[in-house]
Amino acid sequence: MRILICEDSVLLREGIARLLTDAGHDVVAQLPDATALEAAIAAHDPELAVLDVRMPPTRTNEGILAAIGIRSRGERPRVLVLSQYVEERYAADLIASGTAGFGYLLKDRVADVRDFLAAVEQVAAGGTVLDPEVVSQLLARRRRDTRMERLTPRERQVLALMAEGSSNQTIADRLYVSAGSVEKHISAVFQKLELEPEDGNRRVLAVLAHLDAPTSTDQTSAPDATGGIR
């Protein structure tokens, strides 16, 4: 299997590469950060990318954002995230994009080489591998996160249409309201979901929050011809 590793710790990076090589895999690239990740994927066409979460230059979310970008473009390469901690928000974002061909393991809890290699094979084959601690904390997060409950039915309609990829004008046409009204609803959604301008693409983050929320009639109902809820 062709595997790319993106990990800033040289010792861990070399150790993972050695394990994978000894197991018969082809490590096609080893990167210390995500700056050359896209180019390496294009050049080597790996089947699996093993990514750290926190890497230079900010050591915050470079790896996770790279993983989200990879998964948004298709099935290959599959993604196995290795993290020191459970990054609840970003783990939820990744899972919201689909769990096929995805893994999230905590470095300190990978205690057996055979288990790690099995996880590599499972993710590459399109399976899902999640550390039990990741699952536990995400379930706790879901119980804590009541932000979606703050939205009005109309704001949920707008957000549902955003999740379909609709533009502001398309949403306005679907709901029989002005584009200005849609912009006000979207601003209210951002505010109630606590998405600040510095959060990057707030539209994407809002859609992810919608996809991660428990299904409800209000959130999923489509507008009828009068702009009401069916």
UniProtKB/TrEMBL annotation:
BP terms from Gene Ontology: phosphorelay signal transduction system; regulation of DNA-templated transcription
Keywords: DNA-binding, Phosphoprotein, Transcription, Transcription regulation
Signal peptide region: none
Top-rank taxon: Bacteria
Residue ranges of every copy of the Response regulatory domain listed in the record: 2-122
Any one Gene Ontology molecular-function term assigned to this protein's record: DNA binding
CDD domains according to UniProt: LuxR_C_like, REC_NarL-like
Span of domain HTH luxR-type: 144-213
Listed SMART domains: HTH_LUXR, REC
A Pfam family hit: Response_reg
Residues modified to 4-aspartylphosphate: 52
InterPro entries reported in the protein's UniProt record: CheY-like_superfamily, NreC/VraR/RcsB-like_REC, Sig_transdc_resp-reg_receiver, Tscrpt_reg_LuxR_C, WalR-like
Transmembrane segments: none
Protein name: Two component transcriptional regulator, LuxR family
Organism this protein belongs to: Agrococcus baldri
